[in-house]
């Protein structure tokens, strides 16, 4: 914007200066010509005063003295064809002036001759001629034009400088508004702008600060509401646990008790997640979390006759995601396997390092694979499933991957089934165990 304002001011100032300086330049040239003609006329008249009283030698001396002092060639055309002063031929203007009329006329050589008729002489009318060259007519004009040009350029420069200062006063607060907007978009809800600049820009800054504050209030309210709902879920969970403990079959009671524990952990994870500040970044050992969740699901896989292939590295792989988030992600992916493949279909979980410090988690099954329309990305749309489920499983996994700085991909397993690949962002091992 600063550049465009400078260009606009330069163009406007140039137009104004052209409209002003061009007529002024023409006026200066006209005044220079008028001054030269006036001076030459005065010189010719001073010589004309001596025509009736001086002889030929005296007239010649007078004309030569004025020529030397002014630089204008002065010639006296006397009756009878005699001349005194600077040599010159009789031009049509001289012939016209010899009839008794003083005048100014252009010559064929490009100059200007000032002719003064002197009447009352015995032999007729004498003509005093003062000749002005083009240089005489334009003396000082070029210097004046150059001065006006320098002045015009200086005014344009000053105008651009002033416009740049004014533009800076306008663009600086607007740049601050854009910077705060980007920070808010990145999740920094504490970002605020310092209102400044013109009244309109200041109003926008105040409105942006008010909007940021309102967003923070709404998010805080949403977190508290979600936490309140999560707390309310503990009451039916407690009743469910009591019902489980009252079962007569100890094995069935233990199995259902494990499910209730998992559900309670998920509820606790929701409470922690909605209260977590956005700038905090959790981390965990993906090997330990994936191993624990596959071990949990292996019990149900054994009941359904599903072969499980688990491939984990020997050492820890630290990812930029919390243990609760990664557990929920793995549960969502394995839950999809059990929900959308027939009993007895095998599945494989592989965790390997990837480029750039990332971690690759692949969950593949031997089921029917994704439907044809799913290859276009439909399963990744929140709330869309097409298979009778809530459609939130892949969305949970995708958000976990993206929050860690990674991504989620849908591929086809080597056996023709579905395979979900998560690229999880790596984290510093020193941050292991961060909230």
UniProtKB/TrEMBL annotation:
Reported cofactor(s): Mn(2+); Mg(2+)
Keyword Cell cycle tagged: no
Transmembrane segments: 144-163
Membrane topology: Multi-pass membrane protein
CDD domains per UniProt: HAMP (cd06225), HisKA (cd00082)
Catalytic activity field: ATP + protein L-histidine = ADP + protein N-phospho-L-histidine
Record GO terms (molecular function): kinase activity
Compartmental location: Cell membrane
Domain called HAMP: residue spans: 168-220
InterPro entries for this protein: 2C_sensor_his_kinase (IPR050980), HAMP_dom (IPR003660), HATPase_C_sf (IPR036890), HATPase_dom (IPR003594), His_kinase_dom (IPR005467), HisK_dim/P_dom (IPR003661), HisK_dim/P_sf (IPR036097), Sig_transdc_His_kin-like_C (IPR004358)
Domain of life assignment: Bacteria
Residues covered by the Histidine kinase domain: 228-428
Top EC class, one word: transferase
Gene3D superfamilies found in the cross-reference section: 1.10.287.130, Histidine kinase-like ATPase, C-terminal domain (3.30.565.10)
Pfam family, one: HisKA
EC number of this enzyme: 2.7.13.3
Main location: membrane
This protein's record includes keyword Protein biosynthesis: no
Keywords: ATP-binding, Cell membrane, Hydrolase, Kinase, Magnesium, Manganese, Membrane, Nucleotide-binding, Phosphoprotein, Protein phosphatase, Stress response, Transferase, Transmembrane, Transmembrane helix, Two-component regulatory system, Virulence
Region described as Disordered: 372-391
Family matches, as SUPFAM superfamilies: ATPase domain of HSP90 chaperone/DNA topoisomerase II/histidine kinase, Homodimeric domain of signal transducing histidine kinase
The protein's name in its UniProt record: Signal transduction histidine-protein kinase/phosphatase MprB
Organism: Sphaerisporangium corydalis
Lineage: Bacteria, Bacillati, Actinomycetota, Actinomycetes, Streptosporangiales
């Amino acid at each position: 914007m600063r550049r465009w304002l400078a260009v606009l001011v330069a163009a406007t100032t140039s137009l104004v200066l052209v409209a002003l300086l061009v007529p002024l330049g023409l006026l200066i040239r006209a005044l220079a010509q008028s001054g030269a003609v006036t001076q030459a006329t005065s010189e010719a008249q001073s010589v004309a005063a001596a025509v009736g009283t001086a002889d030929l030698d005296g007239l010649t001396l007078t004309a030569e003295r004025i020529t030397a002092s002014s630089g204008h060639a002065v010639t006296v055309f006397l009756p009878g064809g005699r001349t005194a002063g600077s040599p010159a031929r009789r031009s049509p203007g001289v012939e016209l002036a010899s009839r008794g009329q003083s005048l100014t006329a252009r010559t064929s050589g490009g100059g200007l001759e000032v002719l003064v008729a002197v009447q009352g002489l015995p032999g007729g009318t004498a003509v005093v001629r003062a000749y002005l060259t083009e240089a005489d007519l334009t003396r000082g004009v070029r210097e004046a034009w150059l001065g006006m040009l320098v002045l015009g350029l200086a005014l344009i420069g000053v105008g651009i400088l002033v416009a740049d200062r004014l533009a800076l006063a306008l663009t600086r607060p607007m740049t601050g508004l854009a910077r705060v907007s980007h920070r808010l978009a990145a999740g920094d809800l504490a970002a605020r702008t310092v209102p400044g600049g013109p009244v309109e820009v200041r109003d926008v800054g105040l409105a942006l600060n008010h909007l940021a504050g309102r967003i923070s209030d709404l998010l805080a309210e949403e977190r508290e509401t979600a936490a309140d709902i999560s707390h309310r879920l503990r009451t039916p969970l407690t009743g469910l646990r009591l019902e489980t403990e009252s079962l007569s079959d100890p094995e069935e009671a233990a199995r259902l008790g494990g499910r209730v524990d998992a559900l309670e952990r998920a509820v606790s994870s929701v409470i922690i997640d909605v209260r977590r500040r956005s700038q905090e970044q959790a981390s965990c050992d993906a090997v330990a979390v994936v191993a624990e969740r596959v071990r949990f699901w292996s019990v149900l896989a054994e009941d359904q006759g599903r072969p499980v292939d688990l491939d984990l590295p020997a050492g820890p792989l630290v990812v930029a995601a919390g243990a609760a988030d990664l557990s929920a992600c793995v549960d969502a992916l394995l839950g999809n396997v059990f929900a959308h493949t027939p009993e007895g279909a095998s599945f494989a979980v592989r965790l390997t390092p990837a480029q750039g410090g990332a971690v690759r988690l692949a969950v593949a099954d031997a089921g029917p694979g994704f439907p044809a329309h799913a290859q276009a990305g439909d399963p990744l749309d929140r709330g869309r499933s097409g298979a009778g489920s809530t459609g939130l499983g892949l969305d949970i996994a995708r958000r976990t991957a993206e929050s860690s700085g990674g991504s989620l991909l849908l591929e086809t397993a080597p056996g023709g089934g579905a395979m979900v690949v998560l690229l999880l962002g790596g984290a510093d091992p020193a941050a292991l165990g961060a909230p």
